[in-house]
């Protein structure tokens, strides 16, 4: 295993603390006549400690108040109510148990005040977390790397064997300042656009297990090939692109709508080589009659199924019939544990992100998860699960060791 030590942020990473934080902030400023904030409003203000959270709340309400007094009220209230509505995110307890069993050292590094951080960590995680450090007067706060360095020293871990996992730009910067690999989690308090700078961005807890324990690519290859799918894996999108271009020489090629393919610049590479390629995303008509159909998937199960959703449905239709060969190109971010997770990924990660990209008026754009809407703008009118390649069609997965598309 590559990592000896895994350090986590707390709020928004291991624990959903928004309910209790919101109650405590509202109590802390209530004597100033400030109207109660919602969890959505508090979510936008967290990340730099309680004093900053209170200051931002007063500013948002155009209210002057004594921050020290608010902080005192906040601390007193929060100490008595910090485990009322707080819960670990789904899958976190299982992950921590697995880390413990594997002998990987774990710590929490948070800008929450130290006493509260220690109490809350003990309450929820007990012995599963070996050390917790919160905000202390004599230690510079995150994103300063000092506390992270101390933890690494305590655990006899160097930069290469330490992983830092958090949900905010402060966390990413802390890891960068310490020279350790950063993982940003999208389920926390920061919007996705703000955490793109992390070395790796994950949407589900099981992806953390993949990063820490590694992926058994051989097993995945076996699961796809025994179903009749071709399977290739590449380290970089450039290597994958070279391979795909080599397969398309002398053939006619159609494209399905795909951010992955666009990010890889494959259409441009094919055109440069004079290959007969057609893509409706490049001011051409929809083309489904080529020798090869290139597309991506919304979810790829490690057990060998391919999940795609579609609104117009030309893309899913072309993966089912007509093309002689279909090449499905995916980054590792599309990989899910099993079919159920691949469907979850398609519905609750791909669809909301694509709906947002296309400016659709559907509820998942706001909530970030499928609300099973009946809107005419719904972008997931069909879901296709390929269990095996369709009759008379060769079908191949190209998996890339990178995050690509949605
Ligand atoms: S059904 Fe509606 S809410 Fe659900 S993912 Fe599709 S567009 Fe979004």
- State the major sheet: 6 strands, parallel
**Rg of Cα set:** 24 Å
Q: How many domain modules?
A: 3
Q: Under the CATH scheme, which class of the largest domain?
A: Alpha Beta
Domain LUD: 218-399
Organism: Candidatus Butyricicoccus avistercoris
InterPro entries: HAD-like_hydrolase_sf, HAD-like_sf, HAD-SF_hydro_IA, HAD_2, HAD_sf, LUD_dom, PGP-like_dom2
GO molecular function: phosphoglycolate phosphatase activity
What is the strand and helix layout of this fold?
Elements (H helix, E strand, L loop, with lengths): L4 E4 L6 E2 L1 H12 L9 H5 L6 H11 L6 H15 L5 E2 L3 H10 L3 E9 H12 L5 E5 L10 H9 L7 E5 L2 H10 L2 E5 L14 E3 L2 H9 L3 H9 L4 E5 L2 H12 L3 E4 L3 H6 L1 H7 L3 E3 L13 E4 L3 E3 L4 E5 L3 H5 L6 E7 L3 E2 L2 H19 L6 H4 L14 E5 L7 E7 L6
Parallel strand pairs: 1-4, 1-6, 4-5, 6-7, 7-8, 9-18, 10-11, 10-12, 12-15, 13-16, 15-18
Antiparallel strand pairs: 2-3, 13-14, 14-17
Helix pairs in contact: 1-4, 3-4
The chain binds iron/sulfur cluster.
